[in-house]
């Protein structure tokens, strides 16, 4: 069905409240987010909290809201946010993608949650969906305030021209991509504005490969379409992801726990498999039977919310205390 009257791709549960909030990251960019609380919430106590990031190209009205709402139903304080330069967050030029800034957006979410009198600063976790999975892990590797981190359908945004999306980009691919980006910088300088990669069309064309078809199924159809989720980013953003490289410091998250969720039908599964090998204990890999990549964006019957609840309840465990 089309967007709901409130502008979201999912129905707001009658068990939670949703409040638009704004806060700044360390770059001075204003982040637009939604704060979800259970209606039975007791603000006289301090509670665990979770910050949820969207798929690369996604916004808070899509997957992050699905996750944040369900976690709020289960008693957590949760926020879903728009990344810098995208959605309703500020930053110019629009539609930049930056691995450093997108990781910073998670830490900014922690900053905000920690200012709420009913949030325990020692009990804050993070979830990254799709591309945000890598950004959440990057944030956690340098921000020990993130006490537990989970990813869902994690996607490798830093790769170069992957053959079959399996991480086989070569050094020649990397050099060619950087050469193309350098030429694009001249083109942008001459034009006076940055060019974007292709955005999602209004209709799904014929002849798409299976992976592209899957993304179009979510972002182009009524299932997940939103006018602020266009799919395109500035072409000159790509070198930043290449230079950022793989998750070299994921082992530094230990001894804080990592939960990686993927689907057995997800074309992105290889990345969660690889990161699971690189991560240090405590860690866990959950493979959801029958789940494709996009199914872990918004399908409550496939997203393992019981597992996420258990993971954060266990790893953000602490006796509830009264607000001073």
Question: Can you give a write-up of this model?
Answer:
By secondary structure, the protein is an alpha/beta fold. It has a domain at 16-158 and 245-315: 3-Layer(aba) Sandwich (Rossmann fold), CATH 3.40.50.1820. The protein contains nine helices and eight strands. The protein has helices spanning 63-73, 99-115, 131-142, 171-191, 210-219, 238-244, 269-278, 295-298, 305-315, and strands spanning 16-24, 30-38, 47-53, 77-81, 119-129, 148-152, 258-263, 283-288. The chain has an eight-stranded mixed sheet, sandwiched between helices. The longest helix has 21 residues, at 171-191. It is globular, with a radius of gyration of 19 Å. Residues 160-166 have low confidence and may be disordered.
How far do the termini sit from each other?
A: 46 Å
| Poorly predicted segments | 160-166
* Shape category: globular
Helix content: 25-40%
Radius of gyration: 19 Å
How many β-strand stretches?
Answer: 8
Read across the widest sheet, the strand sequence of neighbours is 1-2-4-3-5-6-7-8
- The fraction of residues in strands falls at 15-25%
**Helix count?**
9
**Category from helices, strands and their pairing:** alpha/beta
CATH fold-type name of the domain at 16-158 and 245-315:
Rossmann fold
Overall CATH architecture of the domain at 16-158 and 245-315:
3-Layer(aba) Sandwich
Give me the secondary-structure topology.
Elements: E1 16-24, E2 30-38, E3 47-53, H1 63-73, E4 77-81, H2 99-115, E5 119-129, H3 131-142, E6 148-152, H4 171-191, H5 210-219, H6 238-244, E7 258-263, H7 269-278, E8 283-288, H8 295-298, H9 305-315
Parallel strand pairs: 3-4, 3-5, 5-6, 6-7, 7-8
Antiparallel strand pairs: 1-2, 2-4
């Amino acid at each position: 069905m089309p967007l709901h009257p409130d502008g979201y791709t999912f129905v707001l549960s009658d068990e939670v409240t949703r409040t638009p909030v704004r806060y700044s990251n360390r770059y001075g960019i204003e982040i637009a987010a939604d704060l979800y609380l259970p209606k039975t919430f007791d603000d006289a106590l301090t509670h665990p909290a979770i910050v949820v990031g969207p798929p690369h190209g996604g916004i808070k009205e899509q997957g992050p809201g699905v996750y944040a709402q369900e976690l709020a139903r289960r008693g957590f304080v949760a926020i879903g946010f728009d990344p810098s330069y995208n959605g309703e967050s500020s930053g110019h030029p629009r539609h930049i993608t930056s691995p450093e800034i997108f990781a910073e957006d998670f830490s900014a979410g922690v900053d905000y949650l920690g200012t709420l009198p009913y949030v325990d600063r020692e009990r804050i976790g993070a979830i990254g969906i799709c591309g945000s999975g890598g950004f959440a892990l990057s944030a956690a590797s340098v921000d020990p305030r993130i006490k537990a981190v989970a990813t869902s359908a994690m996607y490798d945004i830093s790769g170069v021209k992957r053959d079959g999306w399996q991480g086989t980009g070569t050094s020649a691919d990397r050099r060619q991509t950087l050469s193309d980006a350098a030429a694009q910088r001249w083109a942008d300088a001459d034009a006076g504005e940055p060019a974007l990669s292709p955005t999602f069309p209004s209709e799904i064309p014929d002849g798409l490969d299976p992976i592209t078809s899957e993304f179009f199924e979510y972002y182009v159809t009524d299932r997940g379409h939103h006018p602020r989720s266009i799919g395109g980013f500035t072409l000159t953003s790509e070198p930043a992801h290449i230079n950022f490289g793989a998750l070299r410091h994921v082992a530094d998250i230990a001894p804080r726990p990592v939960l990686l969720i993927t689907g057995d039908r997800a074309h992105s599964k290889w990345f969660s498999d690889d990161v699971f090998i690189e991560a240090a204990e405590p860690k866990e890999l959950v493979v959801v039977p029958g789940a494709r990549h996009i199914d872990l964006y918004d399908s409550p019957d496939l997203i393992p919310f019981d597992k996420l609840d258990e993971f954060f309840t266990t790893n953000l465990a602490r006796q509830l205390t009264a607000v001073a």
